[in-house]
Amino acid sequence: MMNWQNNNQIQGLVESIRSALHITATVPPTVRYTRWNNNNLNCTILNVDGNCNGLPIRTGFGGLLRTNSGSYISGFSGRITLSDDILFVELTTLYQGLMLAINLNYNELACYSLIKEDSNHFHVYAVLIQNIKDIISSRNFSLHHSLREGNQCAYFMAKHGASNDADLFIHSYPPEGLLPLLQLDELGTLFLRR
Q1: What's the burial of 68, exposed, middle or buried (CB within 10 Å: 0-12/13-18/19+)?
Q2: Among 59, 129, 185, 186, which has the minimal tally of Cβ within 10 Å of its Cβ?
Q3: Which residues on neighbouring strands pair with residue 113, listed in sequence order?
Q4: Are the C-beta atoms of residues 75 and 157 closer than 8 Å to each other?
């Protein structure tokens, strides 16, 4: 017969093995959705994005100006041939979008970009960054971070820029294929965040 001390040790060992092998139920990842957002601002909205893809790599940029309800005002796209550095592409896109807004005489603007961090004065693109900051501070412009899934139209324009050979093209009307995305944004359609 086993004594109670050995029995407790065995029970403790059994429990240790069970807990070690016990697979706890994993919590499914939180499903998150996002949409095109104007943050309830009553000004013109600028969405911008850059794109590097394909082999050989083709680098493009693009964006669009919209009313705060999502209606198309103007857009732009272009191709960058000398760099596939995505940060340079994103900064160039932001600069081109701000310049388009200035050329169309907008003084109040909310710009949505994938760029979200401030950089130091010794950054390799410090001059371009400073030009962007100067433009933003000289007018009533603000910069906001956007998730890619909520920036579908700008992503479309960036891919359009990468697939063409123009350095910069201003689109007075939405390019073919953009209208369905604009309509989804105007309706407030939610997109699954990846």
Answers
A1: middle
A2: 186
A3: 145
A4: yes
Q: Name the pTM for this structure.
A: 0.79
Phi, psi of 91, rounded to the nearest 5 degrees: -65, -40
By the 8 A CB rule, do 94 and 116 touch? no
Q: For residue 155, is it within any domain?
A: yes
CATH number of the domain where residue 172 is located: 3.30.420.10
Structural domain count, the chain: 1
- In-domain check, residue 13: no
Is 101 inside a domain boundary?
yes
The range of the structural domain enclosing residue 143 comes to 33-192
Asked if residue 173 belongs to a domain, the reply is yes
Question: Tokens at residue 88, please?
Answer: 């340079």
